[in-house]
Design brief:
- With 412 residues, the chain is mainly α.
- Helix content is 77%, strand content 0%.
- Helix 11 (204-234) packs antiparallel against helix 12, helix 17 packs antiparallel against helix 18 (321-336) and helix 19 runs parallel beside helix 21.
């Protein structure tokens, strides 16, 4: 069985025992049920988190004994916890034992999952791929560290940072970003991936491979710095995010290959700048113009949308509504002509229209676009966008009711 297949089976077992738990939790909040059963609420929470390994059977037995489960429910609950835990242990064992697979294919599997999650068109696919990425990533990053595969570990940390950011867990996302930078700072020539650093004089092939290795290292380095900038943006620390983005822009990798990196780094910087009231529209537009001069930006529809999204926010914050409306309308036309963009770009556009019409006090249009944005974000489990919408519109008297109608629960 392929490793990803084992993750799927583990998730099936998880879905069974979490459903049994939910049948009990429906009678009250998790905290209320935990207090009544004298269980730490954190334990119940861990049972339902997709990125946490299935609990051991001893923990499950204690929980099953404390909760008001029927005899049949208790048997099913313990059986599927045990099978889920067994699958997780099997995944770990196979990763540790199959070093050839770990070195040749493991990182590629994570990268493929990340691509599938980022560009999934169906909400259920988005949830499934991000769940698989988190679960497999947590296992593989430990295996990479154990095997002294530093560059692979760093890339796994970066992928986990991105997934956790999308799922609106910026604190854990920042942890993985900082871990990526810390691992890179400790790299030595004893790491198994860096054997090409030891090259004998006159070994032309070795020199070429050494050059490739250094380029790979520099690319991973800038990506690690960028992941920290993104995490600070998510936490609302925009000045710090802009500072870190500038640090990434000064790296060797960007100087060597600006076309590959400038599109991403300029978007990150623009996202931080657009939220700062001390930055002028002129400065924002200058960053956008700098992006336009990079051909890769023009060829990246999602990148362009992200950059224009930040500029639109800047216009709205400064009450330049005509410019914001023109830019949004052009984006709608461009997105409608582009296939396979996934759910996030569409939700981003809807959220910008909602922000614009709220700023203009157009209540009817605001409700229309906000409802659509919330609905798409909720269906696709775009938790970061849901949180952003709540921050941008939560102070409006009608927002709580709209949120409840669309999401089906009160805001946290």
């Amino acid at each position: 069985m392929r490793l990803l297949d084992a993750v799927v089976v583990m998730n099936i077992h998880r879905s069974v025992y979490t459903t049994i738990l939910q049948s009990v939790l429906k009678w009250g909040t998790m905290g209320q049920v935990a207090r009544q059963a004298a269980i730490d609420p954190a334990i119940l929470s861990r049972f339902q988190r997709p990125d946490v390994m299935p609990p051991s059977l001893s923990v499950a037995k204690a929980v099953a004994k404390a909760l008001p489960l029927s005899a049949a429910q208790r048997v099913d609950f313990l059986e599927h916890v045990a099978l889920g835990y067994k699958e997780h242990q099997a995944i770990w064992s196979s990763v540790v034992e199959d070093r050839d697979w770990l070195r040749q294919y493991a990182l590629g599997e994570l990268l493929r999952l990340h691509e599938l999650a980022a560009y999934a068109n169906a909400p259920q696919q988005t949830r499934t791929f991000y769940t698989h990425l988190l679960q497999l990533g947590q296992v593989l990053v430990q295996a990479f560290h154990q095997a002294e595969m530093s560059l692979a570990a760093v890339e796994a940390h970066i992928l986990l940072q991105d997934a956790l950011g999308v799922l609106n867990r910026p604190g854990e996302a920042l942890y993985h970003a900082k871990m990526a930078e810390e691992v890179l700072a400790r790299v030595t020539d004893t790491d198994s991936e860096l054997v090409f650093y030891r090259v004998l004089p006159g070994d032309q092939m070795g020199i070429e491979r050494l050059t490739e290795q250094r380029i790979s290292f520099e690319d991973v380095e800038v990506n690690a710095i960028r992941s920290e900038a993104v995490s600070h943006n998510l936490m609302g620390l925009y000045t710090e995010a802009e500072r870190i983005s500038d640090r990434a822009l000064r790296t060797i990798a960007v100087k060597r290959n600006p076309a590959s990196w400038l599109p991403h780094l300029l978007r990150d910087k623009l996202s931080a700048m657009s939220r700062s009231k001390t930055v002028s529209i002129y400065d924002l537009e200058q960053v956008v113009q700098q992006g336009y001069r990079v051909q890769e930006v023009q060829n990246d529809p999602v990148g362009l949308l992200t950059m224009h999204n930040a500029l639109t926010r800047g216009y709205i914050m400064r009450q330049q509504f005509k410019q914001a409306e023109r830019l949004l309308e052009s984006e709608v036309k461009r997105v409608s002509m582009t296939q396979n963009l996934g759910q996030l770009p569409q939700a981003m556009l809807l959220s910008r229209f909602a922000l614009l019409y709220r700023a203009q006090h157009n209540e009817k249009a605001w409700v229309h676009y906000l409802t659509q944005a919330l609905s798409l974000a909720h269906e696709s489990r775009l938790l970061r966008l849901l949180d952003q919408l709540s921050k941008e519109h939560g102070s409006h008297p009608a927002y709580a009711d709209i949120y409840r109608q669309v999401v089906g629960e009160d805001m946290e």
